[in-house]
Amino acid sequence: MTAPATPSRAQRNRSRAVRAGLLLVMCVAALAAVEGVARHLGGRSLTARLIPPLRYERVRLCGAAASGTVLDAGGGWLNEGKRTEILICSRWNGSAWERPADITIRNAKLRGAIRITGMGRNGQGAAVRASSRTEGHTARAQAAAPTRVTISNVWIEADGRIPIYLAPGVTHVTVEACVITGRSRSVAFYFDAESGRNTLRGNTFAARVAREAVAVDGSAGNRIVGNVFTSMPLGGIYLYRNCGEGGTVRHQTPNGNILADNRFMTRGLARCAYGIWLGSRNGRRAYCGCDAGYPFGSSLDNRDFADDNIVTNNMFTPMTPRALRDDGSHNRIVL
Length: 335
Prior knowledge:
Number of strands: 24
Helix content: 10-25%
Strand content: 25-35%
Mean pLDDT: 91
Largest sheet: 22 strands, parallel
Distance between the termini: 84 Å
Number of helices: 5
């Protein structure tokens, strides 16, 4: 009897390649299914969050000495198109915070992100947390943070980091006529706790993000007007208060904001997502108790209190029952 033929090396390699290809297809299909569930039921993108951390060069504009700086690229690339974070920050001199003011970034393209920080890089910074445990925190945070910054006619290609981030206490920032593209592991624009009186006007949001496009987290008195949201499958503008994260007490509520004349492209909006959501959390986070023990702010009550905001003349294309959700009080809404 003749022995069965032994497969050649080429045949074995082809067989391995076929199996590997089938495994890859199965993995991609499984990831797509999980991503779909995450988007429609959880309001988050898993694949966007998997963007690996990348190395950034940093341009620092810090302390009072940076006041009055103007970065005008005449329509060209900032930092020769290298992946860059522009950091506008206050500086502790041993006894007080020295903050920059009247900084302008305009007529430029940026591959990276812009971050404006005062006491801390985010709401969980050590100095922010320490200040939050006594009353008067909002005023202290705002006095310590940069103010009067203008970002105008800047095209930003994000690559993982939040394209524009206003950290706790930042005030009187104007972002206008900008285009936000690329990818973010979080949102496209973040107003952090205790910030306020900032303006987001006439911008286009087209970045792929892992959650809503614009987060208003315990930030008050802002104007978000005349912007276009071309891609927002996980939501447009959400107002909330990030109670307790990192042990920091959030004092200010997302109140007194104006959302007007914005245009939202709602095609593909996930089932649990909204174009505008006033009060999107209201204590629905595991870390809300991490700031317990103080008789004020989010330590006293985890709710968002997204109240007394004005929402008017916004356009949703196509119109959907999930254009707007109001979980606050005394908001003036005119669709």
